[in-house]
Amino acid sequence: MIGLPPPETNQAYCEVSPLEAGLVEIPLEWVIDTAQPGERSELPALSFVLRRPGIDELFLFDLGIRKNWEQITPGYAERAKKLTFRISVPQDAVEALARGGTRPADVGTICISHAHFDHVGDPAAFDRATFVVGADTRGLLAQGYPHDPHASLPADLLPAARTRYLDPADWPPLGPFAHALDFHGDGSLYIVDAPGHLPGHVNVLARTSRDGAWVYLAGDSAHDRRLLTGEAGVPEHGVFGCAHRDKEKATEHLGKIRALMLAEPRMRVILAHDRPWWEENRDKDVFWPNKMDSM
């Protein structure tokens, strides 16, 4: 089944508000096979606030880039230089939340899509939240800095007592996806296993109305919308390598997102680095504390 379950009576749903938490300029040859040599693009690092009406506690998907990103580990500074990233953080997730009068203590749950620097932000700033990550993230962090001096992230990135490592193996299917977790148990928000990009990579699928509208937050399932439309493919560049650990699985998962877009007319898909969406909406009242419309 490609389509998603229809809404129930008094269906629970989420109001969704983006946060802009940093910018990263990348070589396009790293992410799409139609890029011209030397072509570059500045991308936002988007995070999202998801709030169920009537419930004050906030759910965050990703934290973007921290202010002091150069100090994460020596290994990440090396990787950023190798990939010729140019990174700036006019505001981080904490500052973006503060624009709406929201403190880190107001956040109950933070789901990190995967353990790359432009998604993990600064977890230490959120000293009350429970962190939710894919189970394979545990192995990546266990090999982190300083155990591996070249590691991109520190081994103690996430608070041990407040982190849930979710294993998707027993999650049931949902639409085109093999494994998805009904996080609140009311059909309002699903965590979707999203293999290919990095071990532990997850996406979030949320209802945005009582009557059948959805948003799919795709994380790094793709870094460019042309991969969603089929106008470009995932490259394996001679210098930059591939943006995904497993290109075949990443491409397969991307095809499932595309199938869902075709099957659900009221489905909005947003990438973590969705430059076209960001350019179209950056000056509109959709960022926190405002919210996106539900389609």
Task: Give a verbal description of the structure.
By secondary structure, the protein is an alpha/beta fold. The chain has a single domain, classed as Metallo-beta-lactamase, Chain A, CATH 3.60.15. Helix content is 18%, strand content 23%. The protein is built from seven helices and twelve strands. The strands form two sheets. It has a seven-stranded mixed beta sheet. A five-stranded mixed beta sheet has the order 8-9-10-11-12, covered by helices on one side. Strand 6, helix 4 and strand 7 form a beta-alpha-beta unit. The mean pLDDT is 95.
Name the features.
zinc; 18% helix; 5-stranded mixed beta sheet; Metallo-beta-lactamase, Chain A; 7-stranded mixed beta sheet; single chain; alpha/beta; 295 residues; 7 helices; hydrolase activity; globular
The CATH topology is Metallo-beta-lactamase, Chain A
Helix fraction, binned, reads 10-25%
**General form:** globular
User: Going across the major beta sheet, what is the strand order?
Assistant: 4-1-2-3-5-6-7
CA radius of gyration: 18 Å
Structural class based on helices, strands and sheet pairing: alpha/beta
Count of structural domains: 1
What's the total helix number?
A: 7
Protein name: Metallo-beta-lactamase domain-containing protein
Family: Belongs to the metallo-beta-lactamase superfamily.
GO molecular function: hydrolase activity; metal ion binding
Organism: Phlebiopsis gigantea (strain 11061_1 CR5-6) (White-rot fungus)
How is the topology of this model organized?
Elements: E1 15-27, E2 40-51, E3 58-61, H1 74-82, E4 86-88, H2 93-98, E5 107-111, H3 117-120, E6 130-134, H4 137-142, E7 163-166, E8 180-182, E9 189-193, E10 202-207, E11 214-217, H5 225-229, H6 247-263, E12 267-270, H7 275-281
Parallel strand pairs: 3-5, 5-6, 6-7, 11-12
Antiparallel strand pairs: 1-2, 1-4, 2-3, 8-9, 9-10, 10-11
